[in-house]
Design goal:
This protein has 334 residues and is mostly beta strands. It is 5% helix and 48% strand. The protein contains 2 helices and 28 strands.
């Protein structure tokens, strides 16, 4: 589900007006740009890049302290309802839903490299992107086409579309080593070469034990798929797509999951459905680590090798959780 910027901003004001202060939670004091309707987050373990949709900017933060390191903003960047961020080499790439653009800028200085748009790229609401093997792969909202960009110069490499790619309303693209997986809404998994975009393997829904995937991530060895059809997190080999098992819980309705992240032996799943929730599950055994039922309003979960964050668009907050316990470590809020 997508909400307009004005609606989100209005809802955020209403929520913050009635939400009590979290006095026990450490808060960031190093922010100069207000966090406003944050949408997506990406981290390399040291630096965090946050799409600050309310101010059409991208904030670079310290992953250790939450301190603001860089504020990248201005009309030339075309940040408008950004839906995905990834860092690759020395640059950061951002897909922008409302402006149908993909923006590349220098990670350390914020210098604009490229804004990709127009008939050459033919973006149709770019929603997800993955950088792998010197290429950037951009998934359109319709889920039937992936645009491949040469990372070095921002030029179009090719389009991936048509029956042989088995992209049927794809909901996610996930990097797996030097290749990537496209996860379609009908449960089909397509493994693509990161170097060429060629099809390496197709795993159909029944074989993968998938009915209606909604989000996917990887913990390195495994591909983890939140499946609304089965109400589970389905675990598959990231190398082969082989089905390894399913994780379920009675703590929350996983059928309503909207995002998923994994780190340090724990899988984190969030739902923006009402009532929203965030839950942590052990990757081995599926034991519940922690459940948040009322703390977040419109959450999405993100992780790197050491950190877990919950980005809440409506509350205009970013919350860092302890990966293995779910304890709240820090809240970034103005």
């Amino acid at each position: 589900m997508r909400l307009g910027r004005a609606l989100l901003a209005g809802a955020a004001a209403a929520v913050l007006a009635t939400t009590p202060a979290w006095a026990a939670t450490p808060r960031s004091t190093g922010l100069h740009e207000p966090i406003s309707v944050p949408s997506v987050l990406s981290s390399n373990g040291k630096r965090v890049w946050l799409a600050n949709t309310g101010s059409s900017s991208v904030l670079e933060l310290s992953a250790y302290s939450g301190r603001e390191l860089l504020n990248v903003k201005g009309s030339k960047f075309k940040f408008d309802n950004s839906d995905a961020i990834t860092q690759y080499g020395n640059d950061v790439w951002v897909s922008n839903e409302a402006s149908d653009t993909v923006t590349e800028f220098a990670a350390t200085t914020g210098t604009l490299r490229h804004v990709l748009h127009g008939p050459t790229f033919h973006f149709a609401i770019p929603t997800q992107l993955v950088a792998v093997d010197r290429h950037v792969y951009v998934l359109d909202a319709a889920g039937d086409k992936i645009t491949v960009i040469v990372e070095r110069n921002g030029r179009l490499a090719r389009y991936l579309e048509g029956p042989r790619f088995h992209l049927d309303h794809a909901v996610a693209i996930v990097r797996a080593g030097q290749d990537l997986w496209a996860v379609s809404a009908d449960g089909t998994l397509t493994e693509l070469s990161g170097a060429t975009g060629g099809v390496l393997r197709v795993v159909v829904g029944p074989t993968a034990h998938l009915v209606h995937p909604v989000a996917a991530t990887t913990n390195g060895a495994d591909l983890l798929v939140a499946d609304a059809g089965t109400g589970t997190v389905t675990v598959l080999s990231a190398a082969t797509g082989r089905y390894l098992g399913s994780i379920s819980t009675g703590a929350v309705p996983l059928r309503r999951a909207t995002s998923i992240a994994a780190t340090d032996g724990t899988i984190w799943v969030a739902s923006t459905a009402s009532p929203a929730f965030v839950v942590g599950l052990r990757a081995r055994g599926g034991t519940t680590v922690h459940v948040f039922r009322h703390r977040f309003t419109f959450p999405a979960v993100f992780a790197d090798a050491r950190h877990v964050w919950v980005v809440d668009r409506i509350q205009s907050r970013v919350t860092e959780l302890a990966p293995t316990t779910g304890s709240v470590l820090r809240t970034l809020v103005n």
